[in-house]
């Protein structure tokens, strides 16, 4: 499942929009009653003409107007048209005071118990209807333990039970019990038996988007983690694995396409204009991987020949008008299938692979066996309407869901505590896939930046928990940090050793539901070694801080690195044990060259480094204790150490490298990640120093050496252009606030704005040259060279427009008007939107007028405004809630507008508390519609104690208001209550 939505800011990133450091722009990679949704959505041209209404914005209102054709520096009014892109299918019931909430139950890892009953086969039948759907399940049940006499408890939510039979005999009312969450068979047979249950459900009213629901007239399912219990009564847990069949009946006109997992066995027509399809999945799976889709869809079809010569049919299903936008997704799927065979020897195991596109989806995508379901933004792309970041996200997430076929489906997790087993591993695999198809260094920088922006703050807050938590109320996911733990195995064992471990893992556990220890054992056994205390990464929360000091002995020609580590206290874990930390190290001599490494002395042992007679320039130190020293021998001069190369462990590093050392590494380090990192460390130190000056009302001044360092990077003709774009990008506001004892959003924002403008002034000629030299009139292509060129050009343009000078504003307008692809047009718009005023307002309105027919582009438009740092943006975002294109029931719109707003520290943390009040009220309304999405939004409050007393009081008041609401969901309750208790 692709859900890189760790926080509201991360949610915004999921729209293809993320704060790009100092740029305040996008990186390449309702208070009111809800309006009635439209019954159908078009995507372009004539499909939309009948439902458009000409509007212009006047204050907070939208009124009819006349079109005006062009955008220039001097234009002032533009056409705005209402967009019919509402994606919910039915109005939810009117919000009412809910009943008193039962205290949610906390679930503990230590209480895990194997199921008393196993399900061997599951035969499902769906009779789809507009007002209700009848679900019949026939389950082959066997005792999990011989002689068991326990009742059989089945999970269920929002179900109407019609009948329950055992071995064909209907049970009497005293033979079972039903409550809002369970159906319990009191005395099941002691031997194998058949359980048949008939339920009635109402997908058209299901706004939670879990279980079976309607999306733009089509039926769709989402069962991970606990959605299957909204379809029928079942043991809804991942260690209950069975073989499934699924028979679907529905109106042939309304639902001509009927899809489920596995192979299509039979299909045909029925009386009354209905038809059916019977699907069979030959592989055992847990119920969270079940999927059903029914509706009016068409497909792009292709094929892939596996390494053993089997032909696999590939289909991507989407509304007819969106089919042209699926070519990149099909390319991505075929590349992923090829890569998994070449790198891991993993071949697809069925003859059909389906992908379905839906606009309403809580997650990014879902890996249901052979029937992946994707949110539209992660499949649909065209050069005119999608950015480079969108194309890259599609490549990565298509790969991610396909890779789950083995790491998640064929081998799944025993319980939801082990979720990192499949998600961490599969995120690592999709990261490697994207790295191999693009630029490895740039991809690594992007992944580490995400880790620092979203995971590290969570690790330091009330929601901190290990990648395998000890308890939960609702399932919590740590995708990125889990991937970093998997990456450490590869760092320790190398690519070949990691492959051996993967091979053994599949050999041992194919078709099983397993634990993190099983993966650890396979890795260690395959490489005939042990990793002492490595399992602490699964059980200890928090981000380790590692301090490093160095010394050089001229007489003995030895160089020493002394390490110490500390894992800070986290909720429930005040004391921590040392972690196993692999530290990749190189030594750089005075000429900027890597020094060969020969021997290292540590812990009473001398280790000789060898590689078939070839010199070794990078080695991995195994730092396992509270304190350790590593002594390098035969070091001819005092080197500058290059520490944690490639970011070999997810830690905070505090070294004794001087400012001169950092500038030296910025200019010379052969490890490009560490070259970037040296610049980031310098930037963080500079920003923190200037924040202190600002708080003391001192005059701000920029270090000339810092400007010169960036100038040298910008002028380089050797470095990758996308790397240059990353290297001249300052750390984000959140990263700097995270390093302060008391976070000060206003001071950090003021300092970043100052540095950005000063750099633009002093580097203006170089920035203008970069914009000019990286223009291209060639047709759009998605390849690394083209992406890199656009990234550098757009980064430089954003710098220049921050000056708010007429000539550079005109330059940006020209770039906006002449752009032939969304990457460059949207980057120019983002640059223009930095500066409040008429030009910004005109450009935003013009963009909406151009793209109102495309709901995915409109989501970008929402997010760009939501993440803005312009003064008074809280009121602007409040007004956008009433915009005709916004729909609280569509997760992508919520992530774009509300999640995006939470990603703007200066607006969300407005000192008057208006940002907090806005989010608090929205969370309560959203919780009635979609608790899962609401919980992601409320997480923005989790670190309220990091701020000054005034902000603390204002944020706390909103959390208290949320927690006191009747009928609050478990999802929101868990995060809000833990945040308050911190």
Overall description:
This protein is an alpha+beta fold and 982 residues long. 36% of the residues lie in helices and 21% in strands. It is built from 28 helices and 36 strands. It has an eight-stranded mixed β-sheet with strand order 9-8-12-6-5-15-18-17, with no helix packed on it. Helix 3 (327-344) links the parallel strand 21 (311-318) and strand 22 (352-358). Helix 7 packs across helix 8 (516-526), helix 18 runs antiparallel to helix 19 (822-832) and helix 25 runs parallel beside helix 27 (949-963). Residues 3-70 and 73-100 have low confidence and may be disordered.
Strand content: 15-25%
**Shape category:** globular
Unreliable parts: 3-70, 73-100
Neighbour order of strands in the largest sheet: 9-8-12-6-5-15-18-17
Largest sheet: 8 strands, mixed
Instruction: Work out the helix count.
Output: 28
Task: Record the SSE blueprint.
Blueprint: H1 8-13, H2 46-49, E1 54-58, E2 61-63, E3 80-81, E4 107-108, E5 117-127, E6 133-143, E7 152-155, E8 160-166, E9 169-170, E10 176-179, E11 182-185, E12 193-201, E13 211-215, E14 218-222, E15 241-251, E16 257-260, E17 263-269, E18 274-286, E19 292-295, E20 298-305, E21 311-318, H3 327-344, E22 352-358, E23 365-366, E24 371-375, H4 388-403, E25 412-413, H5 419-437, H6 440-459, E26 471-472, H7 479-509, E27 513-514, H8 516-526, H9 536-539, E28 545-553, E29 558-566, E30 581-588, E31 599-602, E32 605-608, E33 619-623, E34 627-632, E35 640-643, E36 652-655, H10 659-668, H11 672-695, H12 704-715, H13 721-727, H14 733-737, H15 745-762, H16 764-773, H17 784-801, H18 806-818, H19 822-832, H20 838-851, H21 855-866, H22 873-880, H23 891-902, H24 905-908, H25 914-929, H26 931-938, H27 949-963, H28 970-981
Parallel strand pairs: 5-15, 21-22, 22-24, 25-27, 28-36
Antiparallel strand pairs: 1-2, 1-3, 4-26, 5-6, 6-12, 7-11, 8-9, 8-12, 10-11, 13-14, 14-19, 15-18, 16-19, 17-18, 20-21, 23-24, 28-29, 29-34, 30-33, 30-35, 31-32, 31-34
Helix pairs in contact: 3-4, 4-5, 5-6, 5-7, 7-8, 10-11, 11-15, 13-17, 16-17, 17-19, 18-19, 20-21, 21-23, 25-26, 25-27, 26-28, 27-28
């Amino acid at each position: 499942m692709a859900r890189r939505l760790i926080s509201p800011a991360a949610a915004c990133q999921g729209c293809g929009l993320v704060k790009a450091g100092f740029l305040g722009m996008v990186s390449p990679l309702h208070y009111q009653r809800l309006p009635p949704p439209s019954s159908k959505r078009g995507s372009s041209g004539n499909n939309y003409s009948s439902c458009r209404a000409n509007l212009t914005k006047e204050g907070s209102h939208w009124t009819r107007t006349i079109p005006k054709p062009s955008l220039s520096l001097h234009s002032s009014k533009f056409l705005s048209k209402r967009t019919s892109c509402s994606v919910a299918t039915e109005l939810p019931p009117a919000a009412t005071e809910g009943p008193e909430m039962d205290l949610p139950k906390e679930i503990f890892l230590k209480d895990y118990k194997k199921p008393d009953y196993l399900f061997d086969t599951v035969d499902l039948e769906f009779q789809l209807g507009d007002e209700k759907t009848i679900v019949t399940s026939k389950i082959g049940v066997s005792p999990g333990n011989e002689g068991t006499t326990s009742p059989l408890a089945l999970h269920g939510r929002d179900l109407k039970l019609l009948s329950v039979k055992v071995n064909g005999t209907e049970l009497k009312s005293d033979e079972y019990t039903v409550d809002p969450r369970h159906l319990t068979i009191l005395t099941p047979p002691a031997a194998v038996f058949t359980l048949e249950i008939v339920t009635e459900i109402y997908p058209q009213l299901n706004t939670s988007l879990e279980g079976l629901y309607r999306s733009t007239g089509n039926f769709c399912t989402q069962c991970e983690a606990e959605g299957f219990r909204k379809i029928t009564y079942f043991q809804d847990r991942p260690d209950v694995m069975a073989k499934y069949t699924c028979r679907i009946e529905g109106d042939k006109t309304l639902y001509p396409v009927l899809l489920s997992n596995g192979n299509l066995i039979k299909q045909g027509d029925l009386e009354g204009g209905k038809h059916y399809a019977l699907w069979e999945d030959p592989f055992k799976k847990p119920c969270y991987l079940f999927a059903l889709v029914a509706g009016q869809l068409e497909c792009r079809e292709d094929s892939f020949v596996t390494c053993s010569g089997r032909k696999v049919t590939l289909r991507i299903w989407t509304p007819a008008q969106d089919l042209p936008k699926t070519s990149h997704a099909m390319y991505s799927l075929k590349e992923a299938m090829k890569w998994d065979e070449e790198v891991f020897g993993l071949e697809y195991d069925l003859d059909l692979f389906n992908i379905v596109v839906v606009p309403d989806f809580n997650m990014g995508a879902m890996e249901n066996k052979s029937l992946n379901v994707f949110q539209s933004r992660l499949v649909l792309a065209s050069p005119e309407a999608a950015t480079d970041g969108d194309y890259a996200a599609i490549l990565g997430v298509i790969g991610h869901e396909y890779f789950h076929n083995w790491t998640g489906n064929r081998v799944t997790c025993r319980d939801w505590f082990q979720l990192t087993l499949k998600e961490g591993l599969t995120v690592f695999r999709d990261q490697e896939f994207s790295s191999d198809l693009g630029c490895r260094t740039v991809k690594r920088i992007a992944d580490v930046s995400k880790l620092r922006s979203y995971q590290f703050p969570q690790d330091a807050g009330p929601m901190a928990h290990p990648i395998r938590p000890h308890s939960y109320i609702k399932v919590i996911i740590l995708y990125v940090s889990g991937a970093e733990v998997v990456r450490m195995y590869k760092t320790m064992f190398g690519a070949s050793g990691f492959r051996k471990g993967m091979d053994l893992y599949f050999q041992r556990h194919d078709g099983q539901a397993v634990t993190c220890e099983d993966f650890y054992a396979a890795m260690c056994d395959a490489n005939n070694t042990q990793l002492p205390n490595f399992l602490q990464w699964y059980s200890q929360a928090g981000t380790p801080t590692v301090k490093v000091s160095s010394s050089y002995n001229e007489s003995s020609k030895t160089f020493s690195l002394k390490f110490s580590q500390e894992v800070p206290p986290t909720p429930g874990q005040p004391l921590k044990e040392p972690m196993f930390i692999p530290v990749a190290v190189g030594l750089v001599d005075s000429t900027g060259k890597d020094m060969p490494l020969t021997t290292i002395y540590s812990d009473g042992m001398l280790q000789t480094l060898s590689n078939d007679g070839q010199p070794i320039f990078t080695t991995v130190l195994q730092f396992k204790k509270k304190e350790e020293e590593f002594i390098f021998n035969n070091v001819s001069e005092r080197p500058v150490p290059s520490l944690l190369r490639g970011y070999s462990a997810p830690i905070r590093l505090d070294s004794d490298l001087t400012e001169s050392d950092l500038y030296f590494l910025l200019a010379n380090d052969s490890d490009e990640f560490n070259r970037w990192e040296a610049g980031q460390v310098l930037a963080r130190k500079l920003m923190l120093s200037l924040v202190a000056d600002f708080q003391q009302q001192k005059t701000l001044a920029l270090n000339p050496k810092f400007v010169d360092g960036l100038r040298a990077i910008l002028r380089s003709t050797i470095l990758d252009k996308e790397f240059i774009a990353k290297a001249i990008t300052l750390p984000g506001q959140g990263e700097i606030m995270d390093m302060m004892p008391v976070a000060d959003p206003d001071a950090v924002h003021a300092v970043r704005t100052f540095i950005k403008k000063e750099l633009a002034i002093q580097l203006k000629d170089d920035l203008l040259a970069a914009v000019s030299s990286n223009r291209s009139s060639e047709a759009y292509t998605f390849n690394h060279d083209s992406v890199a060129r656009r990234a550098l050009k757009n980064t430089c343009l954003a710098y220049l427009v921050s000056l708010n000078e007429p000539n550079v504003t005109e330059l940006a307008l020209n770039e906006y008007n002449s752009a032939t692809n969304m990457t460059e047009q949207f980057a120019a718009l983002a640059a223009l939107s930095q500066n409040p005023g008429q030009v910004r307002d005109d450009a935003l309105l013009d963009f909406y007028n151009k793209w109102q027919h495309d709901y995915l582009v409109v989501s970008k438009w929402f997010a760009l405004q939501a993440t803005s740092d312009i003064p008074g943006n809280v009121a602007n975002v409040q007004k956008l809630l009433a915009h005709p294109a916004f729909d609280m029931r569509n997760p992508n719109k919520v992530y774009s507008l509300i999640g995006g707003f939470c990603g703007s520290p200066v607006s969300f943390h407005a000192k008057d508390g208006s940002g907090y009040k806005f989010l608090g009220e929205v969370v309560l309304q959203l919780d009635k519609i979609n608790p899962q999405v609401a919980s992601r939004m409320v997480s923005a409050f989790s670190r309220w104690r990091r701020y000054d007393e005034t902000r603390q009081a204002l944020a706390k008041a909103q959390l208290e208001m949320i927690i006191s609401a009747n009928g609050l969901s478990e999802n929101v309750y868990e995060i809000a209550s833990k945040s308050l208790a911190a």
